[in-house]
Amino acid sequence: xxxxxxxxxxRRLPTDEARELIALVRDIARREIAPDAAEEEDAGRFxxxxxxxxxxxxxxxxxxxxxxxxxxxxxxxxxxxxxELAHARLTVGLGVSVHTLACHALAHHGTGPQRAEHLPAMLxxxxxxxxCLSEPSSxxxxxxxxxxxVRQGHDWLLTGTKAWITHGGVADFYTVFARTGGEGRHGITxxxxxGDADGLRAAPPERKMxxxxxxxxxxxxxxxxxxxxxxxxxxGQGFAVALSALDSGRLGIAACATGVAQAALDEAVAYAxxxxxxxxxxxxxxxxxxxxxxxATHVEAGRALCLAAxxxxxxxxxxxxxxxxxxxxxxxxxxxxxxxxxxxLGGYGYTADFPAERYLREAKALQIVEGTNQIQRxxxxxxxxxxxxx
Length: 390
Fold this sequence. Notes:
4-stranded mixed beta sheet, alpha+beta, 390 residues, 10 helices
């Protein structure tokens, strides 16, 4: 047994309400999420009941307006909740982040009547959302999407295929971006599509390297009819809506990466202080101590940048560059930390009997989703030196 068990992260939270919220999340994580995480991930089971519990506990609408069932929490607090959830199981932390992303278009660009009609159920009524931007032939180049929405009276008919959709096939609603005009970013519009709409079908989930409990699937839209009342924002505004959501979503991914990295660090510290070789703890060997020190520094640096970007967002200041930096630093850091955790555990780290190998497989996904880390570098560089010359 380890003689120096890792302690919970000492968080600097802005209010007593936030401290109570983190205590609630830690209790749910300890009792309801962590005990079955390894078994359910191995079996590829999606924890739908857990998301209903999170909804009942007020955790699916934290950064949104309480007038519509949200939690009125600043992003600084919301991201720390995500980190705690991802620490227990990434499928859950990432699922909350994706759900929050799926609610963004309606919460920030919907009309008053639209928000009043749909947001309460989405934020606190047990519903789960998905965000549909990517397509088989347009991932990083999202403005090249081909899904079409054709107007027919007061309705729109949506036809096309979306790809890499988290919660594909289990979501209750989909925020879908479709082309209503010409080519490029100015011909795209956002729609709120019910999960049970006629003509909407999910393909079998992708067989993934990690996060097996989180379904990722293509969504096929075959003449799906939605009323104009479910159009979010103006016609042609959809790409700007998508990008504004992704700036916030990247902070969610950064927070999830920090949670996974912290979990891997905790596992490595526990193992290193409990494992003995050559008559002493392996934690007493300098080479391993330096490795742990570097891992802890990656985690703390990522957390600090993520929360600094969140505070800019909370203050209403530009944060796009910092969001890209946080996503880049936290997810690259998580890949490094989880790889080193496997190394510290040695042969045991390579087995499924310990969670280190699962953390490593999960961290890889976070370098890819919501804009690859190469895209993040492009975003950061544009802020520094302007757009690329063609």
